[in-house]
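Re: that backbone. Tokens:
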């Protein structure tokens, strides 16, 4: 399943609108069609979506399911550098 990252502003309550370079990638490179599913990440939340409509400038997705993003590890790293 393909995974894309969008800005939180692109996410509505039941719909996500993708625009920009990802539209060409989804429609022409991957040749995805309506009813295909993909994963969207926005602002720490993952959305399982289905393509509703693909136009030249936008891809409209309906949200099927949402989960909090669990990819962030709960580890904090501090780096130090010594200078001679």
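Recovered sequence:
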């Amino acid at each position: 399943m393909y995974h894309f990252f969008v800005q939180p502003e692109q996410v509505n309550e039941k719909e996500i609108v993708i625009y920009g370079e990802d539209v060409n990638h989804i429609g022409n490179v991957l040749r995805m069609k309506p009813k295909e599913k993909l994963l969207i990440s926005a602002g720490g939340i993952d959305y399982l979506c289905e393509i509703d409509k693909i136009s030249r400038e936008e891809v409209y997705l309906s949200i099927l399911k949402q989960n909090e993003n669990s990819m962030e590890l709960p580890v904090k790293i501090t780096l130090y550098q010594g200078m001679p």
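Residues 26 and 32 are 6 Å apart (CA to CA). The radius of gyration is 17 Å.
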